[in-house]
Amino acid sequence: MSYRIAIVAGEASGDMHGAALARGLKSIRPDVVLAGIGGEEMRDAGVRIWEDPTRLGAVGLVEVLMKMAAFKKLFDFTLKSIIEMRPDVVVLIDYPGFNMRLGQRLHQEGFRCVYYIPPTAWAWGRRRADRVASFSQKVLSILPFEVDVYREAGADVEFIGHPLLDRIDSTWIQDRLGLHFEGIKILGLFPGSRDHEVDALLPIMLQSVRLVLERCKNVVVELSVAPTVDERRILRHVATSGVDVRLYSGDAPSLMRRCFCGIVASGTATLEAALVGMPMVIVYKVSPITAFVFRRLLTISLIGLPNIILGRQSVPELVQENCTPGRIAEEVIRYCSDSAYYKQVVSDFLTVRSLLGEPGAVQRAAQIILSIAEGSCKEGVGPGEA
Prior knowledge:
Layout: E1 4-9, H1 12-28, E2 33-37, H2 40-44, E3 48-51, H3 61-65, H4 68-85, E4 89-93, H5 96-108, E5 113-116, H6 121-124, H7 126-135, E6 138-141, H8 147-152, E7 157-159, H9 171-177, E8 185-190, H10 195-215, E9 219-224, H11 231-241, E10 246-248, H12 252-258, E11 261-265, H13 268-276, E12 280-284, H14 288-297, H15 305-310, E13 317-319, H16 325-337, H17 339-355, H18 361-379
Parallel strand pairs: 1-2, 1-4, 2-3, 4-5, 5-6, 6-7, 8-9, 8-11, 9-10, 11-12, 12-13
């Protein structure tokens, strides 16, 4: 009997993790039937995609409200598609605003749900953990410090390690400590995977580059273009800035490995940069209303994943009113001029790497998910019968 598994991922990073999971599932059970929502990476990995929401991504109250009708339509369509498929297990990947609501509805319908890469309850408070625990058969944690939060909420949670360790060679950080960046230095720009992130951050990044180039003559600039962002949008911002920038559309960690340092939008890319060993300036900007609300809801003061994992600020975070061309340029120039500071940051990244467990997270997740699907089949529990 072939197992049927639905995978729900809503953004570029979730699509990447969903694709890796799909390949892991198929490596164990080649006959597994996979379907769900996600992007091109999941499609290429053998998942039948019902809808691609990766260009719909939004962060913040105002940003989400502007797309509320589209999210509602996607939610209804996804729920209907899963009910029609009747999978043995549904895998929810990140995408908390959407997937927490979906998980609750699926639980009411009798489906078994596994939350892979659960919401950041450690940053937003216990209520998120309580909600996830109420509908999840299993929570697969990728960060060691979030396990206690979910366990205390009553979830069956397991730390499996971070899936990025399966994609990024752990020797890259150590190699960087021995490098001597003489001559040309590459400054990488990583403005995010959402259109509104690019519009908010890229003009500021490009203005900061102008200031850097005035002080550091041996710097060239490369800009990472996420697959979920229209390249024409990037080109318009670059043309307006007048800065000489080379666009790069490949795998972000490969560019990071070549860069002396980078300016990186807060998100998964910051952890990719840390695992590659690329010192960075973390930046982010949302609408003033969103910022006002977030500052009252967040239970932590740090936003960058490497800093959060370390429990202290190792790399600079420039957010909202602090996210200015001058401040960003100052931090980049410091990396270029202070080798002791540069190497200390790289050494901190070795600590980040050590705290994330061992490679193999994807295969561990696949084994657990398949065991739950097998249990569903053996018990003969179908939707509406649990």
